[in-house]
Fold these 2 entries.
Entry 1:
Amino acid sequence: MERFAGLLQQLPRSKGELLRALHLAQEQLGWVSKDAIRLIGRHLRMTDAEVYGAATFYAEFRHSPPPKTLVTWCSGPSCRVVGGDRLRRILEVELGCQLGENGPDDEWGMWLGQCNGTCERAPMIWVNGRVVGPLTMVETVKLARRIRAGEDVVEWPQRPIKIAPATFVDAEAVYGGDEHGEGAG
Ligand code: FES
């Protein structure tokens, strides 16, 4: 918190710096805590409610401590067009938590991410900040089970290829959904 407070002081005291300040909190603390909201408000001369309003408007800001294993699901168009929504459904079932939630005891959690510019690895997730992909549906199931088992997935193989649409067929039998991948909310 001390380091965050110090870096915050370096930002200009203008409301226009609000998003930068929130990103700074998440980078430094892993989440946007109530204490961080108070500090930001004081520095930018805004009320806590104003800061809280912005922090809760944008889905990428977390309001609870990050899980031990943070799975970030890419919501970008390149990932979604090659099966990203199916990946999300599989992860929600296998990890037992919805997007934007932590699992039991905060051991793992799945949170929203935006395109990070490595679309050639779509469809992908990040595990503790590391890109894992492209993932087939079957690999996604295995990966989720390894995360649940507390295994290190850093060494997960990376293949610079895109998955074939045929890969989706088996996953549909298990997880359901329509043929365009829009079936789950
Ligand atoms: S859309 Fe997922 S990395 Fe670009």
Entry 2:
Amino acid sequence: MVRLNLSGIFAGALLLATQVQAAAPRLRYMPLGDSITELGCWRAWVHRQLVKDGYDIDFVGSMNSSTNCNNLNYDRQHEGHSGRQAFDMVARGQLKAWLKANPADIITMHLGTNDIRYARNTSTIIGSLGTLIDQMRAANPKMKIIVAQIIPLVKRNKVKETQDLNKEIAHLVARKRTVPDSPIWLVDQSYGFNVTTDLEADNIHPNANGQKKMAERFYPAIVGAIKSLGVKPKTPVQGKSVATPVSPEKMEEVKAWCAAHPKYIKKN
Ligand SMILES: *[C@@H]1O[C@H](CO)[C@@H](O)[C@H](O)[C@H]1NC(C)=O
Ligand SMILES: *[C@@H]1O[C@H](CO)[C@@H](O)[C@H](O)[C@H]1NC(C)=O
Ligand SMILES: *[C@@H]1O[C@H](CO)[C@@H](O)[C@H](O)[C@H]1NC(C)=O
């Protein structure tokens, strides 16, 4: 009797262990950037929408938000660092260390604003962003990468500089689209962003309107990256998603650029 019970317990334990082993690991998503990623609530809204849509995704990074966001219960880990330039992130080897400490499957990058503030030119910034993309792939050859064209920097009237950078970010993403296992997507965070209604008074950071727009722009790309990893929602979709189409005009521009620069585009 006792023996029988024990074997039953062992069989149960074995079954449980097998089930645990068979369960796919949770996907890890790292939001990377500066204060536009660190502060505010776009990450919280993306996280809550993922939960609503039935996705169980682990937000990762060395940083832990204290931003309350109307008492939302959200996954607070991230890698947004106030004041940080892409240039310094590269110079200090920070992304390599962050990805080593907190490996990721999916990453979003909204960076370059501080580089522009400190008068780095477009080609220097693009060089830094390109290096960061290479470091993401060195850390995980299958990294799913989402690169943002950044929101306009109005402080000290740097809107033209952000537009110039955004154009080159589109070209950078097109050039980096050469690794089938590590797709890279462009999300235009400047598209539909209204500098009158969507910025804080500091003319740098998105206000609640702008943060909502950022979440809406990033969301479909993040879901696309999740789907590309074969992960389906665990629970049926509840209600309507906030997802909106991402910048079709910009994609047309990128397609035209790709057509004019065939040597950058690898055909499989
Ligand atoms: C993150 O901060 C919250 C409070 O803001 C705290 O409750 C939580 O334990 C922290 N998590 C980690 C992993 O540090
Ligand atoms: C950009 O800045 C770097 C570093 O100051 C400089 O070497 C380079 O010539 C500049 N490029 C352009 C196009 O101005
Ligand atoms: C931005 O918002 C203001 C105020 O609502 C509006 O007058 C303006 O037309 C908007 N600009 C754009 C580009 O949508």
